[in-house]
Amino acid sequence: MDIGTGTRGIHVERKSRLLIFVIAYMAEEHINWVIDRIPRDLHDEFDVEVAVFDDASADRTAEIALRGFERAALPYPTRVLVNPQNQGYGGNQKLGYQYAQNGDFDVVVMIHGDGQYPPEEIRTIARCALDHGAAFGSRFGIDGGALRGGMPKYKYVGNRILTKVQNRLLGTELSEFHSGFRAYSTEALASIPFSLNSNNFHFDTEIFIQLSRAGFEIGEIAIPTHYGEEECRVDGLEYAGNVISQSLRSKVHDMGLFYERKYDMGDREGLYESKVDFMSPTYIALNKIPANSTVLDLGSSDGHLARGLKAKGCRVLGVDLDTPADTSAFDVFIEHNLDNGLPEIDEPVDVVVMLDVIEHLRSPEDFVDELAEFCRENSVLRLHISSGNVAFLLTRFGLLAGQFNYGPRGILDMTHTRLFTSRTLRRLFRQSGFLINHVEGVPAPFPLALGDGKKARFLLKLNQLAISVAPKLFSFQFFVDLRPPADLDEMIRRSHTYAGVITEIDQPPLTLHDVDAAERTRAA
Fold first, then answer.
1. Domain holding 182: CATH number?
2. Contact present, 135 and 219 (Cβ < 8 Å)
3. Which one of 101, 139, 313, 334 is CB 3.0 to 4.6 Å from 292, fit for a cystine?
4. Residue 193 burial by CB count (10 A; 0-12/13-18/19+): exposed, middle or buried?
5. 19 phi and psi, to 5 degrees?
6. CB of 295 within 8 A of CB of 319?
7. Which distant-in-sequence residues (6+ apart) come within 8 Å of 81 by Cβ?
8. Are 362 and 348 in contact (CB under 8 A)?
9. Coil, strand, or helix at residue 221?
10. pLDDT in tens, 456-465
11. How far apart are CA 368 and CA 267, in angstroms?
């Protein structure tokens, strides 16, 4: 809470500003009952305002609310706002939460104009929201209370099942997801894009997912249940379908398979986790690079590969856009933007590694040309690269469904500027003179998406089996092992040497190794 200064220099703690937000639609029969139940003693703890948002009701809800405020004589400022057009349950909430932010409130408590939820608990839920960021009133917090309060059995069963499924999908432990008695701190509301949510009833599910993803806790308080003669305007089956759909969308967003802008909280931490413990480009590179090599790791990230290479006695030169907090995995680290070409490298390099980098560059063709020249000049032995497969099965299915959504990770990472198939990736390097030794399909990173357990390991094996049958369809990425281009002048020199040797001795065709040996003998 803010601290203000009194008239005599005494510091006085400012009361939290509380908006009691009454969401109302066609509620003329119940709105007065709701207003009458709002506690009169909240001003000892809060600076309170009460606002009814009438969502373009066709009845007298707004008029009756105005008269109800006059008659009740609440000791707080009150107002009635009427939407010129119906915004829907979610749309009306958006207006109320924006109003709370514009009015510099600290916390907003939403109650329904039909009286289904208890205004008597406003103080408790407001405190809980200030402590956690958000709070729900749970009708299952009191044993047997929901059924005693008149909740129909089919709604009771449906609510319990939906809550259990959502807890499983979202990794939460709420006793009830589907209560309309809610409170949010405006700090929490300001951190999420709630304006992107649906105007329908599953807005409540979407805003919960957003808050959870943004790192806010969801507090719960036990509330009594009341079901009277109020009209239910929710299509139960449609609502359940939307709730499950949004929970699944959040899950697949985490996996990087599809992108949901409303669930992107801007958190990029953990997008480059270690992949050395399962089949991945990092795993393959670590096993292919000989011990005691000098390795140039382009796009080295936090050094997951470098740490494994150091354990093999390699000398590692790391290059990335940002310097990691811990550079101990690198013998040399260079902060450099590869869009500006290669940095200055002052020592011989045996192997160049560029894992999941080429797709981020503005001009891959120019960069690969420069890389080819670097490899020739420095007698680099091997180049290992990897990139996502835009022709992966799920990407193809997405296109069939009219989806091609970029996201925070995966094949359609928002930072990718160029996408490749196996053929176009190989062509890119061939056109700069590189020779391809081997192309290997890489399965999807299930341990990152699902956690490194038996299920993820089984799916990895299954994906690898599918890759062996149809690599272009089932490979999530491709790992390419390349030989650098030969220097043309060097090739001419070797051709002259080879021709000279072959005319001197009568034997089967010589290898380049034989030619080198002959040159060394002549030099001696």
1. 3.90.550.10
2. yes
3. 313
4. middle
5. -105, 120
6. no
7. 51, 52, 53, 54, 95, 99
8. no
9. strand
10. 899 999 999 9
11. 31
What does DSSP assign to residue 407?
B
Helices 203-213 & 88-102 angle (0-180, nearest 10) = 50
Instruction: Tell me, yes or no, whether 7 and 130 share the same domain.
Output: yes
Do both 198 and 293 map to the same domain?
Answer: no
Q: Is residue 268 part of a domain?
A: no
- Could you tell me if 339 and 362 are in contact, meaning their C-beta atoms sit under 8 angstroms apart? yes
Please count the structural domains in the chain. Answer: 3
Residue 270 domain flag: no
Cβ neighbour number for residue 191 with a 10 Å cutoff:
17
pLDDT digits (tens, 9 = 90+) for 202-258: 899 999 999 988 889 899 999 887 776 655 566 668 888 888 888 888 877 776 666
Domain extent at residue 352: 281-483
Residue 276 lies inside a defined structural domain of this protein: no
**Quick one: tokens of 384?**
């290992």
One domain for residues 115 and 155 = yes
The Cα–Cα gap between 220 and 183 comes to 10
Q: How far apart are the first and last CA of the chain?
A: 85
8 Å CB contact between 238 and 196: no
